[in-house]
Amino acid sequence: MEKITIKAQPRTATGKGPARRMRVEGLVPANIIGSGEAKSASVVEKEIQKLIDSGIRKATLIDLELDGKSERVFVKEIQRFPHTGQIRHIDFYKVTPGKKIQTTVAIKTTGVAKGSKAGGQFEHLVHEIKVKSTPEDLTDVITIDVTGLDIGMMIKVSELPHPKSWDILVNGDPIVASCNKTKAILAAERAEKAEADAAKGKPAAKKAAKK
């Protein structure tokens, strides 16, 4: 992942009043949680909003600079004011090198499925998965190339590229993406079979009675 760094300032005053004054000054109250403790801090609202707008994901790791030290964190929760959408509070979760964390990784596709060009219907069914990974092996997105996906083919979770150290936390082996036959293709196949049967002297299959 691309290295992302933001700066935080220590925060000693707590409560609604100090928090309100910080927001007026363009700051967002924050907590840094991890290792059995929580540190109070603040971050510049414009910087954190820019980070969010850039496409930050649940598994995106951030180097948070505080008190001359760098803490590796990810965004655990963002609270917003319901009427304005302004960031009210943000929680960062500190990670420990070598210690697995549970998070959610996005799944993106690239390319145009071969089957789509032939008239099939491409479907992207699973857009994120839960995983357990060490910070060193974590990536915030898995990208799969679907160019070679033909009609009738699929990609399952077990086929996703990922580090061997990951624990993928899903039930079964769901289909992530597939290219399926459309109603038009199925109708054409039935018509083709009926013609072939007629050519061989076989009676065409009777249509199912409508309910």
Automatic annotation (TrEMBL):
<keyword id="KW-0689">Ribosomal protein</keyword>
<comment type="subunit">
    <text>Part of the 50S ribosomal subunit; part of the 5S rRNA/L5/L18/L25 subcomplex. Contacts the 5S rRNA. Binds to the 5S rRNA independently of L5 and L18.</text>
</comment>
<dbReference type="InterPro" id="IPR020056">
    <property type="entry name" value="Rbsml_bL25/Gln-tRNA_synth_N"/>
</dbReference>
<comment type="function">
    <text>This is one of the proteins that binds to the 5S RNA in the ribosome where it forms part of the central protuberance.</text>
</comment>
<keyword id="KW-0694">RNA-binding</keyword>
<comment type="similarity">
    <text>Belongs to the bacterial ribosomal protein bL25 family. CTC subfamily.</text>
</comment>
<dbReference type="InterPro" id="IPR020057">
    <property type="entry name" value="Ribosomal_bL25_b-dom"/>
</dbReference>
<feature type="region of interest" description="Disordered">
    <location>
        <begin position="192"/>
        <end position="211"/>
    </location>
</feature>
<dbReference type="InterPro" id="IPR001021">
    <property type="entry name" value="Ribosomal_bL25_long"/>
</dbReference>
<feature type="domain" description="Large ribosomal subunit protein bL25 beta">
    <location>
        <begin position="100"/>
        <end position="182"/>
    </location>
</feature>
<dbReference type="Pfam" id="PF14693">
    <property type="entry name" value="Ribosomal_TL5_C"/>
</dbReference>
<dbReference type="GO" id="GO:0003735">
    <property type="term" value="F:structural constituent of ribosome"/>
</dbReference>
<dbReference type="GO" id="GO:0022625">
    <property type="term" value="C:cytosolic large ribosomal subunit"/>
</dbReference>
<protein>
    <recommendedName>
        <fullName>Large ribosomal subunit protein bL25</fullName>
    </recommendedName>
</protein>
<dbReference type="InterPro" id="IPR020930">
    <property type="entry name" value="Ribosomal_uL5_bac-type"/>
</dbReference>
<feature type="domain" description="Large ribosomal subunit protein bL25 L25">
    <location>
        <begin position="6"/>
        <end position="92"/>
    </location>
</feature>
<dbReference type="InterPro" id="IPR029751">
    <property type="entry name" value="Ribosomal_L25_dom"/>
</dbReference>
<keyword id="KW-0699">rRNA-binding</keyword>
<dbReference type="Pfam" id="PF01386">
    <property type="entry name" value="Ribosomal_L25p"/>
</dbReference>
<keyword id="KW-0687">Ribonucleoprotein</keyword>
<dbReference type="InterPro" id="IPR037121">
    <property type="entry name" value="Ribosomal_bL25_C"/>
</dbReference>
<dbReference type="GO" id="GO:0006412">
    <property type="term" value="P:translation"/>
</dbReference>
<dbReference type="GO" id="GO:0008097">
    <property type="term" value="F:5S rRNA binding"/>
</dbReference>
<dbReference type="InterPro" id="IPR011035">
    <property type="entry name" value="Ribosomal_bL25/Gln-tRNA_synth"/>
</dbReference>
